[in-house]
Each structure stands twice: as C-alpha cells, then as structure tokens.
Amino acid sequence: MTKIYLSHNNIFSNLGSESEVVIDAIAKGISGLQKENDSFLLSETFCAALISSEEVGRQFQEIDDPSQYTKLEQMMILSLKNVIDASNILLDEKVGLIISTTKGNIDVLDKNSTFPDSRSYLSKLGKVVQDFFGFKNEAIVVSNACVSGIMAVSVAKRFISEGKFDHVFIVSGDLISKFIISGFNSFQALSEEPCKPYDKNRTGINLGEAVASVLVTNENANLCAEAVEILGDATCNDANHISGPSRTGEGLYRSVKSALEESQLKASDVDYISAHGTATSFNDEMEAVAFNRMGMENVPLNSLKGYFGHTLGASGLLETIVGMHSLHRNTLFASKGYEELGVSQSLNIIKSKIDKSLRVFLKTASGFGGCNTAAIFKKHAE
Fold this sequence. Notes:
By secondary structure, this protein is of the alpha/beta class. It has helices spanning 19-27, 53-60, 71-87, 122-133, 148-161, 178-186, 250-263, 281-293, 305-308, 315-329; strands at residues 5-12, 34-36, 46-49, 95-100, 140-142, 167-174, 207-208, 210-217, 228-237, 272-274, 300-302, 331-332, 348-349, 354-355, 360-367, 371-379.
C-alpha cells in the first residue's frame, strides 16, 4: 500500500506568517486573540484573532499588485507560495490543488467591496489560485463546514492512493466577515472574552482568521523534518441537527473508530488528541462523550482555539500542522484557557507545555450539519 505523507507546510495567522514562528509563539503560550471594537463587523465588542489587511497587502506587494486580489486570495497565495517554493516540485499533470474553505470570498458581497459579486463563487477562488501558480489541473474545492481543512487531507490521500496525483498541494483559509460573525452571534455563541475550551467557566466561541498550506505526497524524498505519514482517516455525519452536534457523539465516535481501524492501531497507541474544542457547551460535551466511548479519556488532549480562535475552514489543517510540529519537537502544547473541567465525562486536558516522546496523534474536527472527520498521523523521522 502506498505511503502518503504530509510535508512542507505554512501557517499564515496573526501570530506570524511562517509555521516555525507560529509554533514558537504557541510554545510560549502567546495567543492571537484580542478584544475588537469594529462596528462594521458587529455593533458590540467581541474577541477574535484578526489579521490586518494592510499587513497582508504589504507582504503581497512583493510578488504582485494587491489591488487585483481579495484579502483571502492574497493570504492563500502567500501561504501556498511558501510551500511550493520549499517543495521544489514541478507543477505538472501529476500535481493537484485543493482549496478548502467554508465561505471563501463571501466578503466581496459587502457594500464597500470593489470586486464583482462573481468573485464570491468558490470555483472562482480556486481558479484565481490555480492560475496564479500555473497548476495544470483544475482546483478542487472542499467546502464542508468546519471539517473542510482536515477533510481536504482525506481527499488528497484518496487521489494519491488511486494514482490520480503523486502530489497534492492544499491551501485552507477563511476570513471573518460581517456575514460570518453575525451568523455566530445569532446563535448567541460568541464570547467577549478569550475562549476556554472544556472549561467550567467557558462563555462561548471566538472566531479567527488564518490560512494554512501543506504538501501531501507519495514520495519520501525531500520531506521536511516535521513530516508525518497519514495512517488512516474517516468522515461520518450524525444527521442530528443543522447546527447542533449529536448528544451521543455518534458521528465523531464512528469517525475515530474507523480511522483507528484503517491505521491498525488501538486507542492506547495514540499519544495525544488535537481536538476541535470550540468552547461551546454542546461541542465540548459531545467530544467528551465520544472520546470516552472510545476509551480515550486518559489520552492527553488539547484544543488550539485559545491561540487562533475558530478559523473555520482553515482550522482542521492549521491544527494538523501544529500537530506535525508537536511530534517533531516531542512537545505537548497547552490547551490555552483551560483551568477546571466543565464537561460531564473525564478528559485529560493538557494544562501546560510538556516535553514527552511522541509518535502518533489523532486530529478531529466537527461542523454544522453533523459532519465529523478524524485522521491519524505518525511521525516520519523515526
């Protein structure tokens, strides 16, 4: 069976525009979350991790005219360029491109946008990125709520396993627009304070902006130091509610169970879980139930939302990249904001940075519509 790896990677966030810089910030416990008073986005104060449009444009003008590209397109191109350059891979017919996002360029529909409404189409976003780099194959867009980022890895794995591609570049991203933030606010899910996943005193979700990029490949030459092999993955919908997760954690439970079966591993073989952890009562409780059903209540677990906020379509890939670096550094990063358990079942939340020999991690994500994805990764450099 073909081994498939995740290798060269980039995180573009308000903690930095290079993966190593971002990981160093996480290791120091630095968060990108801060209180915002942007009346255009929301009439009340909210806490989020936003990226300055001016800073994005400043970096982008070194390679092209920022006025011709939306903020999200600029961020995606900057992030992906870093990965393509590092890979030294020729973009021929055996190279694929996947764009993962929940809402793409939805902000061009705002009344102050200078771009045509057609720029909001997800296919157009894919075409812009494809044409910038000269990919020979049409960009594939994965848009399945907040599992989009990690699901893109699953899709890439399947294309490579079937022989369609030898390499797939993935770029995942979302911005915080008026449309998005008003939607979460209508659920009364937003917190004015930094989020506290799984904590007894959590008050809701924070949103964040980020882009993440990675190379998925079947070649073990020229892999980066933090490269991992993807051992197994699975996606399952629980068909519970349009926005609320299953109370029994059924979809997540089945996803993790299937991913472990494909990996030929037991729950006890997982060194840590990079969980979804949005800091909403329904999500956190659902995950606690699912992980306990799997017998994984003692496996070290963290949520990274306290550093980036919930970055929607980028979150699954961004957090996978952090997991890659976690394995490479043999370091468990703290679940920022956590103090006291606030779910009904036991979880082993990582309270502070721990140096520990690591080999395998599980990444999970869940999203609206009852979608759940799990993927298991093993350190390559052993």
